[in-house]
Specification:
The chain is of the alpha+beta class. It has 3 domains: 161 residues, no CATH class; 110 residues, no CATH class; 68 residues, no CATH class. Helix content is 32%, strand content 18%. It is built from 8 helices and 13 strands. The strands form 4 sheets. A 5-stranded antiparallel sheet has the order 3-4-5-6-7. α1 runs parallel beside α2. It is globular.
């Protein structure tokens, strides 16, 4: 059953826990005045939804162009101001997005005030609750209803515990895009997440090399490279986790010092990925995409080929008003890296955009 006050308190607990992580500044969290956010009046929403939105706390970006994150590829929505927002999946008047997916890999959190539930909706169809054939036959506007749905307070409290127990972690992104933070997790499955949440004492985490795959004669080169990538990501997540513990999580946590060291760790990770990319294909020509703000979207506004971000070749054919989420849906299997405000992509990969 829906309760405005219980929902507000659950969101507040969750955001307060997110704020403990060495990612967002404490002033990112804003709470409503006693009478609520009077300016909120969204067309198409019923009075129950509007009443909720006027009393919710929000995570408010410090910069207009900043995209915050609360989960993998997932952006919390702040309704307290009148900024333009990207178009969202159409919903009934008794439902509202609490968070939206940054890309097709992300998750939208859809709150239903009639049922008092939250649906975790993502475009790649994980956690669906009906057979795939039935799901595939649903109208596009109805597919969100077939995704995992949980009581609102239960879901938010579950996410809160995962951040408290460092099953999930948020760290600053030195590049600042596509989101200002990065998400890491310690578990390989939902079952493992639940086991980690039950741990009373957090202990250092040491990831061992998975040598079993290396000796498998049936392992293809692609499988081997994917396994190595998973191992590398897991080792990095362990470094992040152990740094939290080193700085006193949970009871004596030095957030600012941990944040500074994590920022350097992420910079080293980015530099190492660039080095590996160069070693794998030292002669690869790179195309540099520059993303700029257009309303509440980031769109490609300039493209060039050379390392100094400009040459004589005509690049206008690659410029696009498509939102950044569309471009990143194309980059999922492309080795690319950020150089300041430019995203560098091997020129040979451009065939997938034709």
């Amino acid at each position: 059953m829906y309760s405005r006050d219980e929902t507000v308190n659950a969101v507040l607990r969750f955001y307060q826990t997110v704020l403990r992580h060495p990612y967002l500044n404490n002033n990112t969290l804003i709470v409503p005045p006693a009478n609520g956010w009077a300016s909120i009046n969204i067309q198409g929403e019923n009075e129950t939804v509007l009443d909720l939105l006027r009393h919710l706390p929000y995570l408010h970006p410090e910069k207009a162009s900043e995209e915050l994150t609360i989960y993998f590829e997932t952006i919390p929505i702040c309704y307290s101001d009148n900024r333009d927002r990207p178009p969202l999946h159409p919903l009934p008047s008794h439902c509202i997005h609490l968070a939206r997916a940054q890309s097709y890999l992300g998750t939208s959190l859809i709150l239903d005030t009639n049922e008092g539930t939250i649906t975790e909706f993502n475009h790649y169809g994980s956690e669906i609750t009906v057979p795939y054939e039935e799901y595939d036959a649903l109208p596009e506007a109805e597919k969100w209803k077939a995704h995992r749905t949980t009581l609102t307070v239960e879901l938010l409290d579950s996410w809160t515990r995962k951040y408290e127990k460092l099953v999930w972690m948020l760290v600053p992104n030195p590049i600042g895009r596509p989101m200002s933070g990065r998400f890491y997790g310690r578990a390989m499955s939902s079952a493992e997440e639940e086991l980690l949440v039950q741990q009373e004492q957090l202990e250092p985490w040491h990831v061992q090399d998975d040598s079993s795959g290396g000796g498998d004669r049936e392992e293809s080169e692609l499988d081997r490279e994917q396994r190595k990538a998973r191992e590398s990501e897991r080792k990095h997540a362990a470094e992040v986790y152990n740094m939290y513990l080193h700085h006193g999580w949970p009871d004596h946590f030095d957030k600012e010092r941990c944040k500074a060291e994590l920022l350097e760790l992420e910079k080293r990770k980015d530099a190492n990925e660039r080095r590996l990319m160069d070693e794998a294909n030292p002669d690869a020509a790179l195309i540099y995409f520059k993303f700029s703000k257009s309303g509440d979207h980031q769109v490609v506004t300039d493209v060039s080929f050379s390392a100094d971000k400009g040459d004589d070749r005509d690049c206008r054919c690659f410029s696009s008003e498509r939102p950044i989420a569309w471009w990143f849906s194309k980059f999922d299997d492309v080795v690319c890296h950020w150089e300041g405000e430019f995203l560098a992509i091997p020129e040979e990969s451009m065939t997938k955009f034709k």
